[in-house]
Amino acid sequence: MDNNNVVMTKDGLIELKRELEDLVGVKRPVAVTRLADARELGDLSENSEYAAAKQDLAFIDGRILELEEIIHGAKIITSHPKSQIDVGCKVTLTINGKKEMFMLVGEWEANPMEQKISHSSPLGKALMGKKVGEKVEVEAPAGTVLYKILNIE
User: Fold this and answer.
1) pTM
2) CA distances from 146 to 50, 61, 81, 132, 151 (A)
3) pLDDT greater than 50 at residue 63
4) Where in the chain is the domain with CATH 3.10.50.30?
5) 142 FRET partner, CA 20 to 30 A, in 4, 23, 37, 151?
């Protein structure tokens, strides 16, 4: 995984650090205890609890390593020009006459349910560097969607 150029907002970095802290301080110790308890149940070759606990611990350890790499290589976007769209901008668009607001974020903090779109998504790529009044077309499964940029914050 090449995380040397992971672009994200300050809030995104805070969230990843919070997740890492929870994994290291809470979830991993619980998983280690669960594994030790399962080991005491007897024959490990037929112990499904042991296998599940071992798998859970491996998943947690993998996520911890992944988060440490991402955090170490993160490039934080602290400011951006309000004249054009960049990571960290809130953008108001019209889509078929309907107004929508999105925040352009790094790919590790994207969450469409919260209107946070990645700068590397099809819409994010199309918006990067654009200015108020410009229109962008994005290919979607249902066809081409036309967006007009109304505001950049």
Assistant:
1) 0.76
2) 53, 43, 24, 14, 16
3) yes
4) 90-152
5) 151
